[in-house]
Amino acid sequence: MKLSQRITNITGGGSDGWDVFYKARRMIAKGVDVTELTIGEHDIRTDPVILAAMDQSARGGHTGYAMVPGTQEMREAVAARLTERTGVPTSYENILITPGGQSALFAAHVATCSPGDRALYIDPYYATYPGTIRGVGAEPVPIRTHAANAFKPKAEEIAVEATKGAASLLVNTPNNPTGTVYGRDTLNGIAQVCKEHDLWLISDEVYDTQVWEGEHISPRSLPDMAERTLVVGSMSKSHAMTGSRIGWIAAPKEVITHLINLATHTTYGVPGFIQDAAVFALAQGEELEAEIAAPFERRRDIAKDILANQNTVGLVPAQGAMYIMLDVRATGLSGEAFANSLLDTHNIATMPGESFGHSAHGHIRVAMTVDDKRFKSALQTLVDHAEHLAA
Ligand code: PMP
């Protein structure tokens, strides 16, 4: 039987650069003690107080169908958070609650791209981006960035592709995989291109609570951008709730009305007890979020200290998120070859920069997701290994 082109085309064919990751998983299954610095999963679990709220809600009977757009309480909690943190007046009618940021990314592209439309995104990128775009039948168009500019996009380079016609542009700050945070100039440039070329902006802000330097600026807050921006948010990273699958889209009311139709025909909403737990979690405010984010800033500083004492491995300036991007070009190896050799010789698993597109070749991404002591030792071993290769 023939499957649809849309579903068979999602991965786009070819190698996706995840071989090192799968190799590490096979080693772990065989009992090897691998230090996993690969995916963006906290080394802590969801806080017990959030679980207690979930339990109370479920036992209280909130286990039936929840309202498809999200519960009133959850939509209002997210709206209040965005109003307070971005200054953009936001009501519950601007919010759709989704099962995680990933489904929000998919829904946002369904809402903005027709089949065959070109959808722009910034390279290096979070691994699912091109597949998400292909999944809605649109054509993924990467915009290359440069290590020398900390992988921040340049407006004129986005404009080159926008001029050829495109429906949307997807950006992500704080950024996975690079850890960079876009400043006001970068975002103003992006906003300008969107307005000049009539692009929808899809702004993935799932790392908005993890900023170590500068500030998180939501491009939705820039002049005349709220009407063309869809913000993707999530509780996965901010509240260590990856497995709860809860996130949102903030967008103009008309967009949300259509997205509710999509949700009715796809997810049919998010479990009520998860939403109640999320409302509770959001009500804990920035203190809990800061506590959950703190280890990544601490480990970024550990990495900075270790890297300050050598000249072989370069650190892309990392101002946020749970990753650092390291330049290993001085070893003469590609990111993939370096990651493989580090895994083979020292049982340390990292992600090749090539897993995230073409711009980050010769780099590796290190997820700062093991305890400080283990992180420090792994990073020192990584540097020693690079120096050995370079010598
Ligand atoms: N966007 C980015 C940039 C991510 O790194 C992730 C998860 N790693 C997501 C979206 C999706 O996260 P979730 O579906 O868990 O909310």
TrEMBL record:
Domain Aminotransferase class I/classII large per the UniProt entry, residue ranges: 33-381
Domain of life: Bacteria
UniProt key word Transferase: yes
CC cofactor: pyridoxal 5'-phosphate
Reaction it catalyzes: L-aspartate + 2-oxoglutarate = oxaloacetate + L-glutamate
Presence of the UniProt keyword Transferase in the record: yes
Gene3D superfamilies per record: Aspartate Aminotransferase, domain 1, Type I PLP-dependent aspartate aminotransferase-like (Major domain)
InterPro entries in alphabetical order: Aminotransferase_I/II_large, AspAT/PAT-like, NHTrfase_class1_PyrdxlP-BS, PyrdxlP-dep_Trfase, PyrdxlP-dep_Trfase_major, PyrdxlP-dep_Trfase_small
Protein name: Aminotransferase
EC number: 2.6.1.-
Annotated signal peptide: none
Assigned protein family: Belongs to the class-I pyridoxal-phosphate-dependent aminotransferase family.
UniProt KW keywords: Aminotransferase, Pyridoxal phosphate, Transferase
